[in-house]
Design brief:
Blueprint (H helix, E strand, L loop, with lengths): L54 H4 L14 E5 L11 E2 L1 H6 L9 E5 L9 E4 L1 E2 L1 H9 L3 E8 L2 E6 L8 H23 L1
Length: 188
Amino acid sequence: MEGLKPPAGAVKKKKIIGRGVGSGMGKTSTKGHKGQNARKGGGVRVGFEGGQTPLYRRIPKRGFKNFNFKKEFNEINIYVLNNFKSGDKVDKETLNKKGLISSKKMDLKILGTGELTKKLEVYADSFSKQAIEKIEKAGGKAVLIEKKNNKKKVKDNNNVKVEKKIELDKQEKMEKIEKKDKIEKEEK
């Protein structure tokens, strides 16, 4: 044990500057004579080429970057839902109150990692297939929240029951048009 030494070149002597000529780093303290790099706080930013158009601007830009359009989710694994009591309704608000998601504004996705032991009614913007299976296996209900035309629609995964306000509006308009046509025919 006494003979252990680090390999040659592994331990370097500390560079001590600004302590006179006898240090071997004297006079200009390794900075050379004058110029921007010799000054306190001197030097230029990374990529700066003295005012010449730098390389990163000379090269053509190609391709597409998706970061502006990327869909981000608050992702929750199924085992985290065991924090709730059996029979509870789980949605963005309840998860946010418990501190399990960071933002109510982002869409919520339930992932299938782990096991669920409690019967819950879970409302989310997206589910994985495993998550739906595990929620239903525990006796709960997975309810998908659809957003369309800035109106929230609730869609049940099993029966695909959707509040069809738009279709009802169309039907009402068609009925009104048909009534007008009948009245016009009767008048003639």
